[in-house]
Prior knowledge:
Shape: globular
Radius of gyration: 19 Å
Number of helices: 5
Number of domains: 2
Structural class: alpha/beta
CATH topology of the largest domain: L-amino peptidase D-ALA esterase/amidase
Distance between the termini: 30 Å
CATH class of the largest domain: Alpha Beta
Oligomer: single chain
Amino acid sequence: xxxxxxxxxxxxxxxxxxxxxxxxxxxxxxxxxxxxxxxxxxxxxxxxxxxxxxxxxxxxxxxxxxxxxxxxxxxxxxxxxxxxxxxxxxxxxxxxxxxxxxxxxxxxxxxxxxxxxxxxxxxxxxxxxxxxxxxxxxxxxxxxxxxxxxxxxxxxxxxxxxxxxxxxxxxxxxxxxxxxxxxxxxxxxxxxxxxxxxxxxxxxxxxxxxxxxxxxxxxxxxxxxxxxxxxxxxxxxxxxxxxxxxxxxxxxxxxxxxxxxxxxxxxxxxxxxxxxxxxxxxxxxxxxxxxxxx
Length: 294
């Protein structure tokens, strides 16, 4: 999986088995998930056209699941909890149903889920969204425009994803933390060229950590003059053993360890990915090899 924002659209690219409650939703295999910012809530036919135009502009065609939001892509929140990544855009207005806002949730598991587990993931995320809103003293379960996409990569390793399972627990915690963060960014009118990013950490106790590249106390973690635009790699976990390796985690499982990978810290490679956000990992590796030969 890799993700990026372009022309006020959040793109999540990969090879997914996915379930969507959005426009032209259902369950099928797709290469792209997208969350496109629209000025207002359009009627269903116009909404499908808007998504189609956004996808066509990115050269995707019809191979996608898409959602529409009224929230700028830069106000999104991305939350990483082990093998679960959750993307949230959230904005609530109080002028009436036609301007009620929207809350969109996209979920990807790097470990495969059965179709039933994908549907359970949508249920868990929706329940957690309601719980988060009530905790904020907002007397609502969502807005009329809300939608969820649940996706996964790889062969099925989780048959169920209820809130007590490994997958469901992580989805629930990410949504509970992400909804208030996303609403805060929208309410403050944050103007940013990238989403906020949060990592679930177990260092000195379990907690969520916001990641920002500015004033990093660990700089430089690899070498002087490195680029930190992609400190948290959009390809994670790539599973490319030429770049990283599996390591035992503190909870007895395995996590992908890429601490020694410098691919996206090379300034020329980072600049290339910023210019061409749809570039594949193989393309970046070839570029890095060319740079070494110069």
